[in-house]
Design goal:
Distance between the termini: 52 Å
Number of helices: 9
Strand order of the largest sheet: 1-2
Radius of gyration: 22 Å
CATH superfamily: Rhomboid-like
Number of strands: 4
């Protein structure tokens, strides 16, 4: 009997928001609307006070393939992380990646003039960050890439870094700033999480080695 796990509510909301906003913006653009330009991450507009863009841009995908990949990443990797981490930690992680990528792009645009007028959409910023976190959480879990190549979780980190660097080489750093910053933030978060887990294990091991001393005398349970 195959037990199907229910999709977490947070994942459902993320996927629904991404689908709805991406399709609305696409339909609006085909009819001559300007929602795309009003909701995208545009550094020069951020500095004019249009701060809502820091929240809206990650939910908008620029094409059908990126929309599909984003929703798949949310469903497959996001769901597993939600179950492993809990809602609070997951939401803080995603929100942190979005803010670091958005604010970081706006700040770097001050020294990279080419990035100031580039309207950035969600792309794979959240998807890449989820894949990296998932790979760190489940390093030995197998993943099928395009139903052809099977790799272990830990290999996904190198794949994400490599593809992001390749895209930056072809399209330019200015175009890939959110993705580059998102990947960097995910790597830093993963390193800190790994260090915290190692420290907890070390503390637990140390506690097991220590004898309990009560009132300056060894506990009877610890005597040979």
């Amino acid at each position: 009997m195959i037990v199907q796990r229910r999709i977490p509510q947070v994942t459902t909301v993320q996927i629904a928001a991404t689908l709805a906003m991406s399709l609305i913006v696409a339909i609006d653009a085909r009819n001559g609307g300007e929602l795309y330009h009003r909701l995208a991450l545009l550094p020069e507009a951020i500095w004019r006070g249009q701060l809502w863009r820091l929240v809206t841009w990650p939910f908008i995908q620029g094409g059908p393939l990126s929309l599909i990949f984003a929703c798949v990443a949310l469903h497959v990797f996001g769901s597993d992380l939600l179950r492993a981490w809990g809602r609070g930690r997951y939401v803080r992680y995603v929100a942190g990646i979005v803010l670091i990528a958005g604010i970081g792009t706006s700040l770097l645009a001050l020294v990279l003039p080419a990035a100031r007028s580039i309207p950035q959409l969600g792309g794979m910023v959240i998807g890449d960050a989820l894949v990296i976190a998932w790979a760190r959480q489940f390093p030995d879990h197998p993943v099928s890439l395009y139903f052809v190549l099977e790799v272990r979780g830990r290999a996904l980190v190198s794949i994400i870094i490599g593809t992001t660097v390749i895209f930056a080489a072809f399209f330019g750093v200015a175009w890939m700033l959110p993705e580059l910053l998102g990947v960097a933030a995910a790597l830093v978060h993963g390193a800190r999480s790994a260090r915290r887990r190692w420290l907890k294990l070390k503390l637990a091991w140390t506690r097991r080695k220590l004898r309990v001393v009560r009132g300056g005398r060894l506990d009877d349970s610890d005597e040979p």
